[in-house]
Amino acid sequence: MQEQKTDSTGNDANSTIQKIRVKTAFGTLIASKSENPDNPGIYICIEQTDKDGDMYEQDIVLVEDTAGSPIEGFCALRVVTWEDMNSEDYTRVVQLSEKRGESP
After folding, report:
1. Which distant-in-sequence residues (6+ apart) come within 8 Å of 103 by Cβ?
2. Dihedral of alpha carbons 34, 37, 39, 40, sign
3. Each residue's pLDDT tens digit in the chain (104 positions)?
4. How far apart are the C-alpha atoms of 75 and 72, rounded to whole Å?
5. Closest CA to 29 of 48, 11, 13
6. Strands (DSSP E) along 1-104, which ranges?
7. What secondary structure letter does DSSP report for 37?
8. Which of 6, 44, 48, 88 has the fewest beta carbons under 10 Å from its own?
9. 3-state class (DSSP) for residue 54
10. In degrees to the nearest 10, what's the CA dihedral of 73, 44, 80, 77?
């Protein structure tokens, strides 16, 4: 079995996806780049230990570029939240949009 090597941030040294890990009293927050090239963004999840002592990651938020805004001249970010820590289903989706090409 090959030993897993990690860098100074705790990332797998062989992984192409870099993660930022921040320990908190609630659990370890993990921020990572979205793997979807059509909708670049970032995931934030929390790593916790279940009642059996097994580690798991629970999604908290995803912020991503929607890349193909349905209205020309606008760009948008989609924010997806998981507010129920006992569910794998997301709770809410918010669209942030901005008109491009004109000065405010």
Report:
1. none
2. positive
3. 344 444 444 445 555 668 999 999 989 999 999 888 888 899 999 998 888 999 989 999 999 998 655 566 667 889 999 999 888 899 999 988 777 665 55
4. 8
5. 48
6. 19-23, 28-33, 41-49, 55-65, 74-81, 92-99
7. T
8. 88
9. coil
10. 0
Nearest to 34 by CA among 61, 69, 13, 1: 61
What's the token pair of residue 11?
A: 């990332």
Structure confidence at residue 6 (pLDDT): 46
Picking from 10, 13, 54, the residue whose alpha carbon sits closest to that of residue 31 is 10
Burial zone of 16 (CB within 10 Å; 0-12 exposed, 13-18 middle, 19+ buried): exposed
Identify the CA nearest to 58 among candidates 40, 37, 77, 81: 81
Tokens of 73: 């001249």
Whole-prediction pTM: 0.69
